[in-house]
Specification:
Blueprint: H1 2-13, H2 16-48, H3 53-57, H4 62-65, H5 67-70, H6 74-88, H7 94-101, H8 103-111, H9 113-143, H10 168-173, H11 175-194, H12 196-200, H13 207-230, H14 240-243, H15 254-279
Helix pairs in contact: 1-9, 2-6, 2-9, 6-9, 6-11, 6-13, 8-9, 9-11, 9-15, 11-15
Length: 282
C-alpha cells in the first residue's frame, strides 16, 4: 500500500499539469503582491507624516493585505474564482484517463482495487491541496517582505475579520499562527474539491468534462447560496466558493467550515470507494 501511495504521489507531483497549475497560482498571487507593493509605496509618505506610524500601518499590514484576507485586490478576486480549476489540474484527470486508456485494468490486476483507490485518492487529494495552498503560502511570505508587520488591534484595526469568524481570536493575538493554520484550511479545501473529479471519473471518460465538474458544481452552489442569503439566513457565509477565504463577506463559523469539508470528503471517498472497489465493472 505505502509503495503504491508513494508511486501515485510521485506521478501527481512530477507531471506537467501540476507545474502548470502551480505556475498559474503563483502568477495570480504575484499580481496580488504587485498591487500591494504599489499600495505600500503610495502610502509610505503619508504614513511618515503621521504621529503614530504603528497605528496607521495596521490598515494595510501584512495580515490585512495578504491574499486570503484582503478581499479587494485583482489577484484575490481572480484566485478565489479559479481555485477549483487549480485544484483539479494537477491529478484530478488521472483516474478517468487510466480508465479510458485501459491502464486501470492492468494496475488493479497487480495491486487490487482497494489499494489502487486509496493510493489514487490520496494523490489526488494531496496534489489538489498543494496546488491551492502553496501559492497562498508564497503570497504570504512574499508580502511579508513588502507590507508592514504589525499585530492587528481588535479596537482600531480596519480588517474584515471580526467576532464570529473562524479563528478570529487567534488573528488578533497570534496572526502568524492564524495565517499558517489558514494555509492548512486552503489545503483541505483544495484536496476535497479535487476529489470530486475522482467521483466524476467513475461516470465520465472525457478529461475536460471531468475537470470542469468541480468548478461547475461550486459555481451552482454559489448561486444557490447567494439566493438563500438573499432571503435571509443570518449573518453566515454559505458559499464554498467564498468560504475558502479567511475573510468572506459574512462570518464563517468553525462548525460550518468543517461540516462542508466533512460532507465533501464523505461524498467523494465513500462514493468513489463504492464505485471503484465494490461495484464498477471493468
Amino acid at each position: 500500500m505505502i509503495r503504491c501511495v508513494r508511486a501515485e504521489l510521485n506521478k501527481a507531483f512530477k507531471n506537467r499539469m501540476f507545474l502548470i497549475s502551480f505556475g498559474i497560482g503563483l502568477l495570480i498571487c504575484g499580481v496580488d503582491v504587485i498591487q500591494n507593493a504599489l499600495t505600500v509605496r503610495s502610502l509610505t509618505e503619508t504614513m511618515l507624516s503621521l504621529d503614530d506610524i504603528s497605528k496607521s500601518a495596521e490598515g494595510f499590514s501584512l495580515f490585512v493585505e495578504w491574499i486570503a484576507v484582503n478581499g479587494s485586490t485583482f489577484g484575490n478576486m481572480v484566485f478565489y474564482f479559479v481555485w477549483p480549476i487549480l485544484a483539479v489540474l494537477p491529478f484530478g484527470w488521472s483516474y478517468a484517463e487510466e480508465r479510458k486508456s485501459g491502464l486501470f485494468d492492468q494496475i488493479v490486476s497487480r495491486v487490487g482495487r482497494k489499494t489502487y483507490f486509496v493510493s489514487k485518492y490520496t494523490a489526488v487529494f494531496v496534489s489538489g491541496g498543494a496546488a491551492v495552498a502553496l501559492p497562498v503560502l508564497a503570497d504570504l511570505l512574499v508580502n511579508a517582505l513588502i507590507c508592514p508587520y504589525c499585530v492587528p488591534d481588535v479596537v482600531t484595526s480596519i480588517t474584515p475579520i471580526t467576532n464570529g469568524y473562524f479563528l478570529s481570536r487567534l488573528f488578533f493575538t497570534s496572526p502568524w499562527a492564524f495565517a499558517l493554520l489558514w494555509c492548512c484550511m486552503e489545503f483541505l479545501w483544495g484536496g476535497v474539491v479535487a476529489c470530486i473529479c475522482f467521483v466524476a471519473g467513475t461516470r465520465l471518460r472525457h478529461q475536460v468534462m471531468v475537470l470542469l465538474i468541480p468548478f461547475v458544481t461550486l459555481v451552482l452552489l454559489d448561486a444557490v447560496c447567494s439566493l438563500l442569503m438573499g432571503v435571509g439566513t443570518g449573518n453566515i457565509e454559505l458559499s464554498p466558493m467564498r468560504l475558502i477565504q479567511a475573510a468572506p463577506f459574512s462570518s464563517n463559523p468553525r462548525w460550518l467550515l468543517f461540516s462542508y469539508l466533512g460532507f465533501f470528503f464523505a461524498v467523494t471517498f465513500i462514493g468513489g470507494y463504492r464505485k471503484v472497489v465494490k461495484h464498477e465493472l471493468t
